[in-house]
Amino acid sequence: MGRYIGPVCRLCRREGMKLFLKGEKCLTKCILDRRRQPPGQHGELRRKQTEYGKRLREKQKLRRIYNLREEQFTRYFEMATKMAGNTGENFLRLLERRLDNVLYRLGFALSRNHARQLIVHRHVLVNGQIVDIPSYLVEVGDVIAIAENMRDNPDVQRALEVRGEWSVPSWLSRDTQTLQGRVLSLPTRDQMDVPVNENLVVEFYSR
C-alpha cells in the first residue's frame, strides 16, 4: 500500500484532534475549529467503541502523526520488541529519532512532510555530511543542520517564524543563528510530546 495522498484534514477529523499535518494551516485555518465530526455520510452517528476499536484508533493516530506506511510502522514495532525495556516507550523513541521528526521538532520545518522534502532534496546535513534518508535514526551527539544554501529559503525562514516560539524538546538543543541542532540525549517518555497511549498500540499488535 502506497503513501496516503488524499486530503489530510480528513485524517485529523477522523482522529478528532490536530495531527499537524499541514504546517501553518493547522495553526490558522484548522477545519476542526468548524467541523469536529468524523468525515463521511455517517460521521455524526455515535457508536459504542469496542476494545479493539480503541486500540486500532490509537495505532492509526500514532501512525498518522508520523506519516508512515503500515509496513514501515510495523517494522518499527518489531524493532522495539527486540530492545530491552518498555516496548511502548522504545517504540515512541524510535519514531522520535527519525531525522524528519527531529528536523520538525527543532522548528526548521513547518511539518514532518516539509522536513521530509528538505531531506530528500539533500538540504540537510548530519555531522557535516548530507543525509537524504528521512528514516535515518539520529544518535546522541549528532549535529543536524540546514545546508548553507537553504538558510535563507522562504519556507525555512517561515518555519522559524511560525514555530520558533515553540519550545524545543529538552533532549534537543537549537541554534537559530546557524540553523543547527544537537541531540543531547535519547528522549524519555515525559520528553516526548505525543498525545497517544502507546500501551494500547502495543496491545493492538500483541493481540
How would you explain this protein's 3D organization?
It is a single chain. This protein is of the alpha+beta class. The chain has helices at 9-15, 25-28, 51-65, 70-81, 87-96, 99-105, 112-120, 154-163, 198-205; strands spanning 124-126, 129-130, 143-146, 172-175, 180-183. Strands 2-1-3-5-4 form a 5-stranded antiparallel beta sheet, covered by helices on one side. Strand 1 and strand 2 form a beta hairpin. The chain is elongated.
Number of helices: 9
Query: What's the number of structural domains?
Result: 2
Overall pLDDT metric: 83
Measured between the Cα atoms of the first and last residue, the distance is 23 Å
Low confidence ranges = none
Largest sheet properties = 5 strands, antiparallel
Radius of gyration, whole Å:
18 Å
Q: Helix fraction?
A: 25-40%
Secondary structure class reads alpha+beta
CATH superfamily of the largest domain: Ribosomal protein S4/S9, N-terminal domain
Order of helices and strands: HHHHHHHEEEHEEH
Shape: elongated
Strand order of the largest sheet: 2-1-3-5-4
What does this entry show, briefly?
The protein is of the alpha+beta class and 207 residues long. The protein has helices spanning 9-15, 25-28, 51-65, 70-81, 87-96, 99-105, 112-120, 154-163, 198-205; strands spanning 124-126, 129-130, 143-146, 172-175, 180-183.
